[in-house]
Amino acid sequence: MSALLEVSGVSKSFDGFKAIDNLSFSVAEPELRAIIGPNGAGKTTFMDLVTGKTRPDTGSIRYGELSRDLTKLSEAQIARAGIGRKFQKPTVFEDQTVFENLSMALASPRSPWTVLTRRPSMEVRAGEVAERVGLTAHLARRAGVLSHGQKQWLEIGMLLAQEPRLLLVDEPAAGMTSAERERTTEMLVEAAKEHAVVVIEHDMEFVRRLNCRVTVLHEGRALAEGSLDHVCADPRVIDVYLGR
Ligand code: ADP
């Protein structure tokens, strides 16, 4: 498995403060990866750097077979190259139905379905995506009446509809019931069979259920990497989390 995303020696400072400090990180395709770390560790800045919202001071961010340098591309170009990002708060069109929300995503210029002449009907595609995110029974409902968890799933569905190669997901389980968290785990594990999925998460139980490789970020550096059990046994990680 070669890397889909290769971050090498990236640093980013804000007013002299190093939010990301000589960070190297790579993700394969497909792969499920969790990034954990205390507040201020640099998790959001990392996502901003990959999606082109923020530019690194030094280092490179290479992506895909052609090793394109993402630091040279605009946010829109990066999104078109197949990198989708889900922010913590769901942003769906509340007045539109679930079907309409998914249809809009399928019709967006980022979706591969817009360039295929013999593409399946919108109904078929939207139905398939709805099934992947557990919303088949809700297709005709207005997104505004969905539960918080269902809105998160709808947004994940809207991203999946655009067939990303790399999906960055920020704290998907925040504010969810335990049943919703469980369903979200299954959804992300399933999505990561086809795509590279990077999940930022605070909830350790959630990360445990993802059962994937974990990167611990601390003061902008990758402090430890491996299974959750492996990183949790690392004395440096124990220091950071327990302040010993
Ligand atoms: P996390 O998402 O892990 O909580 P962040 O990436 O948001 O961490 O922040 C890392 C550090 O960088 C924090 O100390 C934060 O205050 C600082 N930081 C992030 N963005 C900015 C910015 N635009 N201006 C100044 N400081 C910033």
Automatic annotation (TrEMBL):
GO MF entries: ATP binding; ATP hydrolysis activity
Keywords on this record?
A: ATP-binding, Nucleotide-binding, Transport
Task: Output the Gene Ontology cellular-component terms.
Answer: plasma membrane
For this protein, the record's InterPro entries field holds:
AAA+_ATPase (IPR003593), ABC_AA/LPS_Transport (IPR051120), ABC_transporter-like_ATP-bd (IPR003439), ABC_transptr_urea_ATP-bd_UrtD (IPR017781), BCA_ABC_TP_C (IPR032823), P-loop_NTPase (IPR027417)
Domain ABC transporter intervals: 5-244
NCBIfam families on file = urea_trans_UrtD
Q: What is this protein called?
A: Urea transport system ATP-binding protein
Protein source organism: Jannaschia seohaensis
Lineage of the species this protein comes from: Bacteria, Pseudomonadati, Pseudomonadota, Alphaproteobacteria, Rhodobacterales
